[in-house]
Write a structure and sequence with these properties.
370 residues; 11 helices; seven-stranded mixed sheet; globular; eight-stranded mixed sheet; 31% helix
Length: 370
């Protein structure tokens, strides 16, 4: 995204145009549609993640991004208005320290920032050289001076100064939800819009009852918010790092009705269809026959749901779907339309000033007359 596009005076008009485009996309596909709820972002200071190439010019060091129309052209960055205030305050301090210390500066390739609504910060420094004891000593001093957690990376090497995760805490519906944000793992980039997504998902799930199956649970961001609304929850995720973070979140929030299984969506689909027996389920003593699933919650990657998972979804009374790609969502809803109807729609502007728009749908099984 070119920084020239960041103009708060135009934000509302840009979001309205994106929302209208979303509506037209679904209307043109012939899918029954309600006017979506629109959840706006802050026009500045909304990003909790940012990464920059470190640009070396004649002994000087700068942050750089690249023009999407000319990917080889570096654009030097003095400030980054989309970033949270914590990141914007750290940027000049980090650059000055790197510039002044040859041990920290030599062959540095990239700097990545992660922060939370709670205000913690983690900085990752990526190098094109092996990091040694001298670098580690300098990095300890840097982390102390900046008041951050710090990670140094090189090929086949990771050095953690402090810890490689942050704790997030978000208040939703009077609940204080704690999650672990792991360095290098997926986290929601826009904290306030994530809060809106959690609140909207809880509002749709309220009163559905029964048990919940959650696919792609990640670090448990939605899991800890939705679990109190259901009897039992079976949540699946493939990433070991994310599963570990989700387990931490369940314990930290005192959530006792969730079982986590490290499985892909097509694997749990096969297990529920009784097509395969999985040792991982047996090892955890997970008996699928004890669940009375009423609702499927999915927040898939940009590719959307694959064929086995869509087939699984068709058998649920309710499908609560968070999407980061309207194109694949439209394709998936085109399949689900044979069995389900849309009862609630929302769009979430995670990435202002871009064409990207996240969305949420609640689909309910059609009645005998539907």
């Amino acid at each position: 995204m070119p920084l020239s596009r960041i103009n708060p005076s135009r934000y509302s008009a840009l979001l309205a145009a994106k929302s209208e485009g979303f509506y037209r996309m679904f209307a043109d596909a012939g899918v029954p549609m309600h006017t979506p709820q629109v959840f706006a972002s802050q026009p500045r200071g909304y990003r909790l993640r940012a990464e920059f190439r470190m640009w070396h010019t004649g002994g000087l060091l700068d942050y750089a991004m690249f023009d999407p129309t000319d990917p080889r052209k570096a654009v030097l960055v003095e400030d980054f208005p989309p970033a949270a205030d914590v990141i914007r305050a750290l940027m000049p301090r980090l650059r000055a320290r790197l510039q002044a210390d040859e041990t920290l500066r030599r062959r540095i390739f990239q700097a990545e920032f992660l922060t939370t609504l709670k205000g913690e910060a983690l900085v990752s420094l990526v190098y094109h050289r092996q990091l040694d004891a001298k670098w580690e000593a300098a990095a300890h001093a840097l982390a102390t001076d900046l008041g951050v957690q710090l990670v140094g990376r090189s090929r086949g090497q990771k050095i953690v100064i402090g810890r490689d995760w942050l704790e997030e805490e978000i208040e939703v519906d009077g609940l204080r939800l704690r999650t672990r944000q792991v360095e290098g793992g997926f986290t929601q980039p826009n904290g306030e819009v994530n809060r809106a997504m959690l609140g909207w998902a809880r509002a749709q799930a309220a009163g559905l009852g029964g048990d919940l199956l959650e696919l792609y649970c990640g670090n448990g961001n939605f899991t800890v918010a939705l679990a109190p609304l259901f009897g039992k929850v079976l949540a699946t995720e493939l990433s070991k790092t994310s599963v570990a973070a989700a387990r931490w979140g369940l314990e930290a929030n005192g959530v006792g009705n969730v079982t986590l299984a490290r499985m892909a969506s097509d694997e749990i689909s096969a297990a529920l269809a009784r097509e395969r027996v999985f040792r991982r389920l047996q090892e955890q003593d997970i008996n699928l026959d004890t669940y009375r699933f009423s609702t499927l919650f999915v927040d898939p990657p940009r590719a959307g749901l694959n064929a086995p998972t869509l087939e699984l979804a068709c058998g649920f009374d309710n499908v609560l779907y968070i999407s980061c790609n309207p194109v694949t969502l439209r394709d998936n809803v085109g399949v689900l339309a044979a069995t389900h109807r849309i009862v609630a729609v929302a769009v979430f502007d995670q990435f202002p000033y871009t064409d990207h728009l996240e969305s949420g749908l609640l689909l309910a099984r059609r009645g005998a007359d539907g």
